[in-house]
Predict the 3D structure of the following.
Amino acid sequence: MTNKSRQKLNGVQGHGPVLKPLAAAIIAALYPLAPAMAQQADDADEEAVIEQIVVTGSRIKQDTFSSAAPMEVVRTEAASVRGISDLASLLQTTTVAAGSPQVTPAISANSVVNGGLGSSSLSLRGLGANRTLVLLNGRRAGPSGVQGSVSAFDLNTIPLAAIDRVEILKDGASSIYGSDAIAGVVNIITSKQEGGE
């Protein structure tokens, strides 16, 4: 066999001696990755256990401890021990309130104010109730209104017994929820009880 016929058998005329070492080098470089790929396939079969998933303040599901935004979760079990009977009073005891009135009752001697007499709205950071977004199970809660005007969500419309927990996003979330959430977001999660228990 002549030299030319050997080069044609190698596939590329004139480059036979170069291709063999190059192919060997590629195979040698990829060989250590084969056991790693097999280990990844075994790890994918195992399921990770995550205790709590929170969606408030982000479109990405994550737990409260790894969240970039500061969040406070208030459970309603402690309300009965403290003698608290409504959501507004429960929220007033949180660290978000820190001694300042964050829940504004609509009481005025002259006329109906905000949501009407007896209503309570939430105003984080003193920016007003229209700048604090209230969510109900992760969806925007409808505003209340009196005498033809639209006002902020009335916290007294949901009984405390129907609430499981309240998630308070202390940071502004206007990039996700819009200008309603400049002061923060309050997500009211209702309990999942069935059968009227």
